[in-house]
Amino acid sequence: MTNTTVDFEAIKDKQRAGWQTGDYPRVGNTLQIIAELLVEAADVRAGHRVLDVACGQGNAAMAAARRFAEATGVDYAPNLLEQGRERAAAEHLPVTFTEGDAENLPVSDSAFDLVCSTVGVMFAPNHQKAADELVRATAPGGKIALASWTPAGMIGQLFKTVSKWAPPPAGVRSPTLWGTEDHLFELFGDRVEWVALNRREYVFRYHSPEHFSEWFRDFYGPITRLAGTLDGEDLKQFARELADVPRPFDHADDGTVAARAEYLEAVGIRR
Question: What is the rounded (10 degree) CA torsion for 101, 102, 105, 109?
């Protein structure tokens, strides 16, 4: 199958509408530790030029700025960028937030010492074009660092649950492929030497499985948007299926949720 028949721009328009629904930073802010670990793995230094692609509310950009890097975040959802600016101002961090598409980054060639993304660029529908842009923006000898949910992990299962109710567009590959080594090798080829490929776990912590379901229905834009199209028994069934997602990954024994979600932390050097 080729990508020539896929209308990626229309898909991105629908994606953007999803991220502008709900209040994604309420979910995304809980993932800050993933960004902190990623910039540590990439060995960010003071003065490094760092680009956070599909930054959302700026987790990785802010992590880099805490280490005195020159941090820029780019995303195509203006509401997420605005919350990023508010967060950075509250923490007195000099982060630049710019509206832009991960598949057509508004930056010069080889402009950054580190180009990174935490569970962000993986959602770009044209995987190859997004990967090409990451390479283009990275200076030779600089680094690309990615944190991506894996297919078999909890978030992979969450996406499978959602896809039963809203099948993904034809011709678009799963975002969780970014959480596999083989897919990274395919996308980047010999342009990147991967120096670290580590499986990590982020633990989702909620009051209960039902609280997990409610939180994602209220705040995780794409799921909020989907839930808004359902009513009656369909909505109740969808809510129950979301509540079931964390159960196999939950190691809490007190009725709360402490569910492990696997992701791939990848750091490579741009040749």
Answer: -170
Q: Which one, of 268, 113, 142, lies nearest residue 195 by Cα?
A: 268
For the four alpha carbons of 14, 57, 104 and 127, in that order, the dihedral sign comes to negative
pTM of the model: 0.96
| pLDDT for position 1 | 39
Confidence of residue 269 (pLDDT cuts 50, 70, 90): very high
Q: Is the pLDDT of residue 89 over 90?
A: yes
d(CA 233, CA 214): 16
Q: Write the DSSP symbol of residue 101.
A: B
Determine whether 166 is exposed, middle or buried from the number of CB atoms within 10 Å of its CB (0-12, 13-18, 19+): middle
Comparing CA positions, the residue from 140, 72, 141, 143 lying closest to residue 114 is 143
Q: Tell me which of 3.40.50.150, 3.30.565.60, 3.30.70.240, 3.60.21.10 is the CATH number of domain 8-203+261-270.
A: 3.40.50.150
Q: What are phi and psi of 85, to 5 degrees?
A: -60, -40
Both tokens assigned to 55: 């930054």
Helices (H) and strands (E) in the chain, counts: 11, 7
| Residue 77 in tokens | 């959802």
Name residue 4's amino acid. T
Residue ranges per domain, the chain? 8-203+261-270
